[in-house]
Every structure is written in C-alpha cells, then in structure tokens.
C-alpha cells in the first residue's frame, strides 16, 4: 500500500521504471484538499469541463459538461457543484455516480494562458438540492467533495480560440432551442419530455 493521496501501486511501478518517483513526490506537494482563490476563479470562469465516472464494476465513462461561465460553483472549502441540464436521457455519468460516487473532473483552458486543474473526489446527485431553485436550466444538481485538487502541466494543450458559447447553454430569460437530433425519424417517437427547470 501507499500513503500517497495521489498515487497507488500501479503509478509507483511505472514511476520506478522511469525513475520519476522523486518528481512525482515533488509534484504531489502542490496537491491540496481545499480550493485556493485561484482555483475558484479558474473553475467559475470555465465554460466546460470533462467528467470521468465509472460504474459499479469499474467500467469507465468520460463526459463533456458545458454551460455559461459560472455554471460550476465552488460551494465550500472542498466542495463544488454543477447543474445537470437536459440531455439525451441516458444518464451515463450521473447514473454511474449513483452506484459509484468516485469521480474525476478536468478543467482545461485552451485559449489565452493554457491551464489544467484536476479535482478527484466523491459526488452526489440530487433533485432536492437548494441550488436547483436558483440555477437556470438545471434538472439535477451534482455536488463533488474533493479528495485531492491539483494543477497539471499544460504542455500539450493546443492554443484554440473560443468563439461563442453554445446556443444550447441555459441562460436567464431565454429557453435554449431543442437540438435537431430530437426531430430525427430515428428518435422523435421516443424523446422524453424536457423537465421543468428554473428559468431565472
């Protein structure tokens, strides 16, 4: 076993093969369990992040989550929250959370100054969360309690330009359009109704 908050025996085996245990231990010194003001600013300005989950058998899934900047909020020293918006109804990520609360979040900036931040922890999904009543477009709220928060080297991040937010991202005072795929012959007879959400 290992007393590291970031590394397990599999990580250590490869670190030892590549003589990178020392740099890994040094990098772990930058890991934390509470968000810094810079972490908060980065997370709350993000228009998207990537969410990794796994089912009860450990089979992984990775999902893109997007919205208007501020859709993810740091709600406590070690907690963040984000809304679940209307989607395809499969609930791959959130269904995984119901059977396996372990999650990994990757926040990444591909424009301006490249930046990455990882948040690994445990998550809950709620239809009764108090944030639901004041989060435009939300049908569920996910809260994540961080086990470890750590910045990541941005070396391989391409420089990309963010042109416009998605027209489907919920915003105050407007209803986003339905995606075209919901009208396709293959799907239109079985599309679930959009759930009532806070309009703002």
TrEMBL record:
Q: Name one Pfam family in it.
A: PNPOx_N
Top-level taxon of origin: Bacteria
- SUPFAM superfamilies assigned to the protein according to its UniProt record, in alphabetical order: FMN-binding split barrel (SSF50475)
Q: Where is the Pyridoxamine 5'-phosphate oxidase N-terminal domain?
A: 37-159
Show the PANTHER family listed in the entry. FAD-BINDING, PUTATIVE (AFU_ORTHOLOGUE AFUA_6G07600)-RELATED
The protein's name = Pyridoxamine 5'-phosphate oxidase family protein
The organism is Bradyrhizobium sediminis
What does the organism's lineage look like at the top? Bacteria, Pseudomonadati, Pseudomonadota, Alphaproteobacteria, Hyphomicrobiales
């Amino acid at each position: 076993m290992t007393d590291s908050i970031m590394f397990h025996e599999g990580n250590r085996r490869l670190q030892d093969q590549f003589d990178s245990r020392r740099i890994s231990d040094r990098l772990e010194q930058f890991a934390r369990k509470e968000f810094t003001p810079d972490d908060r600013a980065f997370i709350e300005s993000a228009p998207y992040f990537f969410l990794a989950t796994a089912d009860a058998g450990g089979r992984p899934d990775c999902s893109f989550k997007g919205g208007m900047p501020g859709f993810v909020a740091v709600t406590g020293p070690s907690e963040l929250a984000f809304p679940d918006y209307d989607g395809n109804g499969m609930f791959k990520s959130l269904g995984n959370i119901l059977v396996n609360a372990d999650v990994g979040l990757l926040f990444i900036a591909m424009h301006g100054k490249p930046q990455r931040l990882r948040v690994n922890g445990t998550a809950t999904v709620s239809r009764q969360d108090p944030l639901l009543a004041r989060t435009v477009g939300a049908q569920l709220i996910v809260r994540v309690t961080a086990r470890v928060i750590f910045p990541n080297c941005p070396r391989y991040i391409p420089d990309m330009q963010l042109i416009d937010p998605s027209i489907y991202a919920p915003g105050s005072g407007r209803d986003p359009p339905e995606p075209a795929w919901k009208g396709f012959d293959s799907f239109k007879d079985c599309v679930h109704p959009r759930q009532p959400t806070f309009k703002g």
